[in-house]
Amino acid sequence: MNVLEWIVAPLRYPFMVRSLIAAVLVGGLSAVVGSYVVLRSMAFLGDALAHAVLPGVAAGYLIAGQGGRRSLFWWALGTAIAVALGIETISQRTRIKEDTAIGIVFAGAFALGIALISTVRGFATDLVHVLFGNVLGVSNGDLILIGAFGGAVLLVVFLLYKEFLVVSFDPTLAVTLRLPTTFYRILLLILVAVTVVVSLQTVGLGLMLAMLITPATTAYLVTRRLPRMMTVGALLGIVSGIVGLYLSFYFGLASGAAIVLVAITLFSIVVILRPGVARLRRSLHR
Question: Is it the case that residue 220 has pLDDT exceeding 80?
Fold first, then answer.
């Protein structure tokens, strides 16, 4: 099999085409939103939101059953937004710091999810898909949801880029400009929550944090400006999704794990080569 046949062969299967589209959408979206997560040191928040949607998934399964898989998305989305708002409310209205509020809400939501799961028989198979993703099972309807919500998140980031930049990195200037800082903080939390839920079927709860921060962190190492960081991170996320799916197809690996391993491999390569590249830049500058 030559290189062209190796590339084209998976595209003969409709489920692989849908999976590749989903991986491209999620990879780009995760990196763009993940840039704010990395720069604002919100990795713990991303992990908390990823795991805190578990009670929503369990509740949706209890109410809708196996036949209502699509409704799980809406339950997970509602739970993620509720958790994000709960974290912001606790941290703003009490003396508790944000990381402590995240830990409390995360632990409570995750425990509730486990309690609900323990009451459901036959949930083991579906739970594996929730935890580790099932991008190969993406349907046309799932693609519509991913495209619609992912596009909405990117549109908000584009329209409010300057506001998010000021609120995130210069709160004093934001107050001087009389920007509603609380509103933008909550909106950013909601964007992270939506991104987490949109990415669930691709990499699952267990690996979502890796896709949210790894491409963005890799881009952070090679760029100095936020727009470039978002662009490079999105490209790395897309490449990770495509290469990971091909590895999954040819070597029988779990798709979500393969995608994350590719992203981490790219990060490792950049970490190893970065000192040499930096020395080369300094030499050329001199």
Answer: yes
